[in-house]
Amino acid sequence: MVTVLAALYARFGEVEALRRILSGVSCAAVGLLIAVVVRMMMPLLKKRDWVGLVLLAAVFIAIGVLRLPLPAVLLVAIPLSIAVTLAMRRRSAA
Amino acid sequence: MNSGGNPILTLAWTFGLMSLFAVGGANSAIPEMHRVAVDVQHWLSDKQFADVFAIAQMSPGPNVLIVTLIGYSVAGVAGALVATIAMCVPTAVLAYGVSRLLTRSSDSRWPAIIQTAIVPLSIGLMGASGLILAQTSDRTWTAALVTAVAAILAATTRLNPFWLLLGGGFAGFAGLIG
């Protein structure tokens, strides 16, 4: 199915009307993605999970704004996030 | 990762590695795909990247389809197959291994801890995807408006996303996007 679409795109990608339709669809698709992000953030905002929100913002800036390579960012962020999560649990348990 | 080498091998290596870091699914890896495919390897232009994202979102099936499309535009059907397999197999093996490890370990707190730790990172990655795609797609203020309207409708109503994509397509066809 997708390979057919891809073949069509390769052949007709330059056709003016299709190009216009696709640019409209991609604008809407970006909107959908943003809506998913907002929905996923809601639980963190409701719980006032500041640590999670700071980590979220840090990853967002590192990847989205600074355009750092993904493996490098995650090799720092995942251990850091696990360590912070553990520390928070210890503190709330104590 | 030399761009002078065999493109099929580069595809396999690039997406195989990327799949291990796609925390939260293919949509989290979009900034990395864009960085590699557009900025590093020059496989696609910014515009083509926005197009393959749109096609992948429109098509029924998982979001990982964007990888199939990038592979196709680099090296045809073989490229599409290799890129898709490279994106799915290593991560499936990793997930299997990790889940075996977690169910075997006597300490049952770990799954919850890892999940709590990963969720904010994954949302941050998806947010970065949204930003980068908005930069590639929204080149005019009407385009940005379509994105904003779609985002608001999708976040506040239960409207089927298909209608929003269709609406975007109509707006584009009518020449509103520019």
Descriptive notes:
The complex is a heterodimer of chains A (94) and B (178). Chain A is mainly α and 94 residues long. Chain A contains 4 helices and no strands. Chain A has helices at residues 2-12, 16-46, 50-65, 70-93. The termini of chain A are far apart. The model of chain A has no long low-confidence stretch (mean pLDDT 87). In chain B, helix 3 packs across helix 4. Chain B is built from 7 helices and no strands. Chain B is globular. Helices cover 76% and strands 0% of the residues of chain B. Chain B is mainly alpha-helical. Chain B has helices at 7-21, 30-40, 46-58, 65-104, 110-137, 141-156, 161-173.
Secondary structure layout:
The complex is a heterodimer of chains A (94) and B (178).
Chain A: H1 2-12, H2 16-46, H3 50-65, H4 70-93
Helix pairs in contact in A: 3-4
Chain B: H1 7-21, H2 30-40, H3 46-58, H4 65-104, H5 110-137, H6 141-156, H7 161-173
Helix pairs in contact in B: 1-4, 3-4, 6-7
Unreliable runs of chain B = none
Q: Report the uncertain regions of chain A.
A: none
Q: Which word captures the global form of chain B?
A: globular
Largest interface, counted with CB-CB under 8 A? A-B, 59 and 79 residues
- What summary fits the major beta sheet of chain B? none
Oligomerization state? heterodimer
Question: What are the secondary-structure elements of chain A, in order, as H or E?
Answer: HHHH
**Helical stretch tally of chain B:** 7
| SSE arrangement of chain B, N to C | HHHHHHH
* Mean pLDDT across residues of chain B: 87
Fraction of residues of chain A in helices?
A: over 70%
Approximately how much helix is present in the residues of chain B? Answer: over 70%
Strand content of the residues of chain A, in percent? under 5%
